Amino acid sequence: QLQLVESGGGLVQPGGSLRLSCAVSGFALRYDIGWFRQAPGKDREGSSCISSTGGIVNHADSAKGRFTISRDNAKNTESLQMNSLKPEDTALYFCAATSRSVQFGKLCRENDMNYWGKGTLVTVSS
Questions:
Q1: CA distance 74 to 14
Q2: Which residues contact 97 (CB under 8 A, 6 or more apart)?
Q3: Which range, of 2-6, 9-13, 20-24, 102-106, averages the lowest pLDDT?
Q4: Cα 17 to chain center, whole Å?
Q5: No. of H helices and E strands in the chain?
Q6: What is the pLDDT of residues 31-86, one digit of tens each?
Q7: What Cα–Cα distance (Å) separates residue 46 from each residue in 9, 14, 20, 63, 113?
Q8: Is the per-residue pLDDT at 104 higher than 90?
Q9: Which pLDDT value is given to residue 105?
Q10: What average pLDDT does the structure give for the chain?
């Protein structure tokens, strides 16, 4: 019922910033949404997620203090502002969403997500 398309990835130097966006189309009464990432040779992991109303935000420890997630339901967009980027942030970043109920306060569980974008590549390197 939802289609997700990421944009904004690219090459950035360590310490730099990048802003990712996710465009949402289709229909769901409400949905939680967020960002997962997968580095080469590693499992996909949750980074930052936000509840349907924007009232709850979850960040992985690696993202806290550096990443900010936001959503604009009227425009059907979600963004991830990434600051102070590190080489270990290099990964394919996926937008993911779910229209299903999840455990309260737990928004970034991969198995809960039932809609996925194809990813946008972020490379942090000098």
A1: 34
A2: 2, 4, 24, 28, 31, 32, 33, 34, 113, 114, 115
A3: 102-106
A4: 15
A5: 0, 11
A6: 999 999 999 999 999 999 999 999 999 999 999 999 999 999 999 999 999 999 99
A7: 17, 21, 15, 10, 11
A8: no
A9: 87
A10: 96
Report the residue count for the chain.
Answer: 126
Could you tell me the sign of the dihedral formed by the alpha carbons of 19, 24, 29, 34, in that order? negative
C-alpha span between 30 and 53 (Å, rounded): 8
For 88, the 3-state DSSP assignment is helix
Strands (E), 27-101: 32-38, 45-50, 57-59, 67-72, 77-82, 91-98
Q: Which amino acid is located at 42 in the chain?
A: K
CB–CB of 37/20 below 8 Å?
no
